[in-house]
Amino acid sequence: MSPKVDTLPTADRHPKTHPRAGTEPSLAENYVEEVALALNWGAILLFVLFLLGIIAAAWPVRLINPLWLQTVSDKLLASGPIAMVGALLLLLARLIDPDSRPIGRRVALLRPLSFWIAIGFLLLIPLQIHSGINLLRQFRANDTRELNAYIATTRAIERARTYDDILKAMRLLPGQAPALPATLNVPLDVVKTKLSNDLNPFIKRYQNSADAMGMKRLNDWFVQLARNVIAALLLFFSFAAIGKRFAYQPTLLRSLLSGRLLSTSSSRRHQAAPELAVAMQMMMPEDNDPPR
Q1: In this structure, are residues 155 and 170 in contact, taking their beta carbons and an 8 Å threshold?
Q2: SS3 at position 16
Q3: What is the largest CA-CA distance in the chain?
Q4: 0.90 exceeded by the pTM?
């Protein structure tokens, strides 16, 4: 009997390994690509919004101004979740469509970028402490300057010998000085006593109010600092979970948990010791060598 010849084409016998030429991608594949593309552009939009918000808060730039540093730090912490959601959307797009080269390139760029963003959020903690302390000192200096101006006015009034001296002393008051008539028909001592009696209780009240306001600012700053530290740590761990300095390295969070970052320098210092021990062992004769 002659062998039976298979008349089916190769593409019909093995449809998976030899697909027909010109076969259109399935509807599911198109849907996956569209979803991944939408997530990709959504991530880009969130990153753009994050950058625009930071630029708007940081302009104009005043690096030595503690109020500017505090404002920019607060804006970074408030906008950090937007960038984190954008990073998650990009990773989700990569998970849905792993064959997309544009998404793969953006994820490869996201890894080191997230590494440095995590470091930046961690550095915001000492920056917030530094700027907050300087801001409190600046407020306290302003209160002390105004208080000293009132005290200097009182002393100048007490040393006044003429009514013109009293008018000059009133100009030392911060803000808008009270209007006094050009001349008075009352004795100078009466004017001095009246002004001193009015200013001394006001100075005492102002000092108490400045002290109370200083304590309130300090308490509010402690509460705000605690919130910002928690937010900075959460954002640090979030970006550290996806951030890599180099592609072949583990994520920053995994390196911290495994202690690799802490042991890298020590391992490099002791790296030559095993090699030296092996070299010395090769130079020494073995115990089981026969005597010559």
Answers
A1: no
A2: coil
A3: 146
A4: no
